[in-house]
enoyl-CoA hydratase (Arsenicitalea aurantiaca), 655 residues
Amino acid sequence: MAEPILPPTRNWHFEIDLEGIGWLTIDTPDAPVNTLSRAALEELEALVGHFEALARDRTLLGVVLKSDKPGFIAGADITEFDAMSDPAVLPEALRRTHRLFDRIEALPIPIVATIRGACLGGGLELALACHYRIAVNDEATRIGFPEVKLGIFPGFGGTGRSIRQAGPVDAMQAMLTGRMLKPGAARGMGLVDKLVRHPDQLRWEGRKAVLADKRSAPAGLGKRLMAFGPMRSYLAKRMRDEAKKKTNRLHYPAPYALIDMFETHGGDWKRMSAAEPDAFVPLMASETAANLRRVFFLSEGLKKQGLRGADKPTFQRVHVIGAGVMGGDIAAWCALRGMAVTLQDLDMARIKPALDRAKKLFRKRLKKPVAVNSAIARLEADPQGLGLARADVVIEAVVENLEIKRSIFADAIGRAKPDAILATNTSSIELERIAEGLSDPSRLIGLHFFNPVAQLPLVEVIRSQFNTDASVAKGASFALAIGKSPVIVKSAPGFLVNRVLMPYMLGAVNRVEQGESPELLDAAAVAFGMPMGPIELMDTVGLDVGRSVAAELGHDVPETSRFAKLVAEGKLGRKTGQGFYRWEDGKARKSDTPSHPDLPALGRELVRPLVDETERAVAEGIVASPEHADIGVIFGTGFAPFLGGPLKARQDNRA
Ligand code: COA
């Protein structure tokens, strides 16, 4: 029988080798990552028709799905999501993809997915529709369902198929957290069948799997038990309780919709998948999803601020001066992200607490003793400052004292490598004032991290009037190299984040001075969508720090105020166990929240000064664009991502 004619494809290459094995390569044109666009899926439909025909006349033994890019498939094409949100288009598009993936699964010949790099969202759903999955066990390979971060859940049948392969507990956990799993974890859960050490082995192992007609086994009964009867309701309740601790259903409906779907259909993976489209469509069309997509693209855009191509610098050694909370945590973070770090302070007694905190962080994040021990080895106490001369980046994070900072940089500029970044983590002193006495003031930039360093993704890269574009871009490159998101900010009091936070926090503090309940104000801000209320935030930041930033920004704190008195009494918040709240075991002891008829409206009122100030900062050119302000405030303060940032929220009349 003549081989059916295959229409040309732009997203895929297909060839059959002499053994009769088909090699299907996804290659999204003109893009750094592969995605499942509508066009790619339509082409795949034609290809699958082709496989069906070839399998019938036995000219094709099986197919290996692969990518020649560094990543496998980064999911459905998010750039199409706005257009795809149309309820007139989406349900049929989803059902069509479901039919396509079902046809792949129903092929009589083995289809093997070979995975390297990112295998995410729709990419994982496609892999799960294949019969067998092989992944490279390396640092670059990550497997997961990040959909909840975009306000949706898997929509190509992945909810059911992941439960079939991994059992309900692990699969739901993966979908609800959006976590990117390491290959070993994905293998342990059953999302992947086999691991290889190197990408070069994928071809050979893929071939072997086809020839051996490998078929992945679904999760065993022990794992699946939790999907049945009352166990399922119990599990759904537990997951809902967990979700409530982290998110508000009104703000982030996707996890709750997924749990509801699981509770109703989770006992039968096919019914779970079949129920997906109806629950998916309203989520995709929601304001939350649109705003979370915006956050995704803004965040991707920040990556472009670093130096690229041949100019892209490499960073290996970091020297941090000042082992206090910020300096110590910055040093720990850099070591966690693979840099060799020297941490300098006056003596070992001052450095030791930072090293102890670092160990805790390494254990929490890296888990494996080998990885923890190498991170510990990468972070070196350096009371004499010997590491400075070898460092690619020098970060000063000592007390906010102009003279001390000036003398540190006067010394550093003479000893540091000529191309090393010299950066201060000052949160309130204008850069020009520190730089002006230096032999070359253009070398000093600001790298302003946020507390807690391990949690807040933002680094404000501060630009003084002396800096060149290249030196600021190099600072952004460094922030990216340690996995942070840089926003370039003009040197001006409070930069962006402290400047916009302060009127919001002080506004709330004033209301407490007038007799309002801190618990009520905090609950209102959280009901609006902030991760933490303003009074609890002030206690967390430290009342002394809050007061000095307030002064730097020209906000008056009357001596007779409760705020000033607390500072005078050394009741500085969380770190001293007492501030506006009493703190025990790192938690604020709160009284019952008084009732209020409309908490979100009160929250909105509290947040208004923050939004006003963001508008002013943009008008003054503190950041390059309103978009940078939105993403900077989200990443630096946790401002409600589902609203898309303060300016987007105002534009939508939500703040
Ligand atoms: N759809 C459309 N575009 C995507 C995409 C997707 N699913 N995933 C990545 N991209 C784009 C990014 O927007 C960026 O585009 P740009 O260069 O025009 O800014 C580019 O691909 C990524 O390039 P880069 O930043 O160099 O890649 P990376 O190695 O830093 O990160 C990923 C790659 C895949 C880890 C990261 O982009 C990611 O997490 N993507 C989202 C995955 C996702 O949520 N998928 C589920 C969709 S339902």
